[in-house]
Structure prediction request, 355 residues.
Amino acid sequence: MTTHGGFEPVFCTIVPPHVLDKLARHEDPALSGPARETLERDAYERTHRRLTTVIGAPTVAAPAESDKPKRTIYDAKHKQDLPGKKVRSEGSEPGKDATVNRAYAGLGATFELYLNAFNRHSIDGQGLPLDATVHYDVKYDNAFWNGEQMVFGDGDGELFLDFTIPVDVIGHELTHGVTQYTANLTYFGQPGALNESISDVFGSLIKQYTLGQTAADADWLIGAGLLAPRVSGVALRSMKAPGTAYDDDALGKDPQPATMDDFVNTGRDNGGVHINSGIPNHAFYLVADALGGHAWEKAGQVWYDVLTGGELKKDALFKDFATLTVTAAKARFGDGGEELQAVQKAWEQVGVPTS
Prediction:
């Protein structure tokens, strides 16, 4: 396990604050009410996460078999107390609650991708048990990793559906845990956008691995199936075409740039971490698309090598990450291969230097 001087007090949600901020100002209380309550709850959980980091989270013993997941699903029963009532544990049969079953399967899918593709034993590399709480709060429009466990809202039913529906959302949030235990990227500005992008990358890979998809088969969408039918959009983000995931009267237009030419300078959303992540996201897509096949085998391996290699600093900028991917591609696949060329060309296309 690689760490850099202790864990950052990061609280990570799948729905960006700028989306909820816009919804909170909507004239329809059916839309603004859940958004405001979600923002208030997120603020509380963010503060709690900081306090937990200061005080120290309880130590959790690794299971005896670290090559097997140890999943526990809890039901908050629409309250805010975590973790809630235990409703499913490792090895138990599926129950009648589809949300519980999806959360259980998503935790398992994430564990399997990291183990089988990268020989990583759970998100900490040492067999950390995977806990998740479903049915959190009432009409809660988010899912988050709080440094210790996953939490899923049911959505408001108007704009957002159940947050366990997209497996890539589950993989995205758990990957924040992987980053927490490895490069521990600062959650602000470009390092924060890299943090978000890495979660999108591996969230997408988890979905592709689960579905047996090649890079050409994949939709490269984050959160497909999460938006309610009334929303004009297909997902929260698109790695293939950043800025095109949604264009909706209530949600607004997807603000993600695909290249540095459109980099967004903002103090909101921790310096635009959910916005500018579109740039490294698109670079990864371009690498995977150029190489073809299963994206976790080459492009994913290069990204994983950088994340866990110990050279990626907490305050890394896009150019730092890009340079390390070039080094990683050379180390793993050699100087003259298509892998190195694909990596270099992708970063050039999005306007990030690699030297």
Notes: Residues 123 and 178 are 5 Å apart (CA to CA).
